[in-house]
Amino acid sequence: MTQSLEGPAIELKHLGKSFGPFRAIDDVSLAIEKGEVFGLLGPNGAGKTTTMRIISCLLAPTDGDVIVEGKSVRVDQNRVSISKEIGLLTESPNVYERLTAEQNLIFFARAYGIPEREIESRVRSLLQEFDLDSRREERAVSFSKGMKQKLAIARALVHRPSILLLDEPTASLDAESARTIRSQISETAKGGGHTVLLSTHNLDDASRLCNRVAFINRGKILASGSESEVSSLMKHSRGKTNRLAITLVSSNGISPEFLSKNLTGVETAKIDGKNIELVFEDRYSNEDFDFLTSKVISALVANGAQITGVVQSKPSLEDIYLDIVGVATKEN
After folding, report:
1. What's the pLDDT tens digit per position in 210-226?
2. d(C-alpha 170, C-alpha 186), whole Å
3. Same domain membership, residue 132 and residue 93
């Protein structure tokens, strides 16, 4: 993604946070560009929520700094203006259950100082956008978890922030509700032009929603980049490989030497009767692997092979996540 000439929306500079002897965040540096959806991935206790709280000025950093829309969170005078740029969704929806959906949004609109003449139209628009208009007069206590989460996201947007911080937005939701929330986040990010920082340990959310991700564990960033970049980096550093299993009617005299020599990207090749196993060089991304697979099949067919089955094996974002977090945990 091309970096804005005006600088990133959020920049973490050697950020650190200690609670007594416990180091929750340790020398974290990241740049989150304007308009992107960025995923902060890690297990519970990794430092995700602490990072969110520092960005939103709920916690002060111990060392380092966070720059939000060009303003340092360390400068007292900046904190009010930074908070107006940010819509925060905490892990728990924290809606007022005794209030109706409409009353919740009106309350927070007034709390943010939205002019009274604008509140009605703004609240109506959000209720329609989040498919809550038909239940605007119902108390939130009667809502499902998914509806409460939608109301909480609408609440986070009521003051029209440029940045949306979402802490575990699909936690504890059933599959249907989680899909609805993912769709709503995607539409909000694209339609509203918001910069979104998504904190999660749900790899499905990250893979579906994020332009880039960073893995965090025990307060340290382990890797960052696009899913493809992180996959390539981790495969190279940890020996993960893309593999291709091919089943043939007949190999028609094709040898491992022929495969290694004539197929682009193949590191090793084995033939066991009617079965071929190809291991590809770790420098190739998953997208490259898809292209190389088609080239392999074309080359085999052109040389007389009759193929009955093809199975790809490539490390997923979840495989890489579990691997790097597991290794980091053992090392510590």
Report:
1. 999 998 989 999 889 88
2. 13
3. yes
* 138 and 20 share one domain: yes
Do residues 266 and 135 both lie within one domain?
A: no
Spell out the residues 6+ positions from residue 151 whose beta carbon is closer than 8 angstroms to its own.
Answer: 93, 95, 101, 104, 105, 130, 132, 140, 143
Residue range of the domain that includes 82? 10-233
Residue 4 included in any domain: no
Q: Are 89 and 164 in contact (CB under 8 A)?
A: yes
pTM summary value: 0.77
Which distant-in-sequence residues (6+ apart) come within 8 Å of 240 by Cβ?
A: 234, 282, 315, 319, 320, 323
Taking only Cα atoms into account, the Rg of the chain, rounded to an integer number of angstroms, comes to 24
pLDDT of residue 116: 96
CA-wise closest residue to 317 among 205, 239, 198? 205
328 located within any domain: no
Does 160 score more than 60 pLDDT?
yes
Q: Is residue 319 part of a domain?
A: no
In this structure, the answer to whether residues 188 and 287 fall within a common structural domain is: no
